[in-house]
Amino acid sequence: MTDSYRHRLPLNALRAFEASARHLSFTRAGLELSVTQAAVSQQVRLLEEQLGVVLFIRLPRGLALTDEGLALLPVLSRSFDQIESLLQQFEDGHYHEVLSVSVVGTFAVGWLLPRLAAFADLYPYIDLRIMTHNNVVNLAAEGVDFTIRFGEGLWPLAENTPLFSAAHTVLCSEKIANKLSHPLDLKEHNLMRSYRKDEWEKWQIAADLEPWRVKGPIFDSSRLMVEAALLTDSIALAPSCMFEHELSAGTLVQPFQTSVTLGGYWLSRLKSRPMTPAMMIFQNWLLSEVKLPENRLA
Question: What's the whole-model pTM score?
Fold first, then answer.
């Protein structure tokens, strides 16, 4: 097929074929496209003539795709979906840029979500898409623009920008806190654990205690761990800065002042991924929100 011939392929005929192939019916395709069944059938025949192939087997009731039709359908469907997705980004005379951010769940609930309304007010033409993870994310495979995760910022192939440190403290309900007069009293209670194995040991050393083995259940989310501690009269070791609302409301209590810094929250992107205008805006906004000295990552 020559380039000039390919350029003459009619868009209406391609759309008629794609709708008919999804429904396996000219009639239902016509209803979707707001044209008659005869008009759809005519457009498909026009396409078949230009391509020199048969795309459908006409059955007494409905249609069946030929091998050529089966090959063409997914390509057209993807193309039309991409066009529709792009056109939806033009609204009210403005281009809406999509920004995908994958966020560790504890940070999403404890820090980011309460601030998203302010971001939306400042940048109404950035469509922010938030996904959560349990601190394990593959930037390349998942195709997100940014990820926010907890750790030491040593992830390879990524540009890792520090947000702020997150000191871990003992957290529990007021009922349990009233039973704790000394850190050694923790031995008498069920202690929730993170998948990072040495967190309780580091806190015990910071509290001038001889470390003992903690055997409580293990969680991959500090948010889930704290919720479980409240529900089961247990005790969690978690970043208190992610639970400021609960602490101020009194639903969560920090019985001891001892804390230990086990890492911090970082904003990461693939080094190979060029920064878009929306990515630059989001990064600058996020860094401005955490600019206070006491929130900086040491």
Answer: 0.69
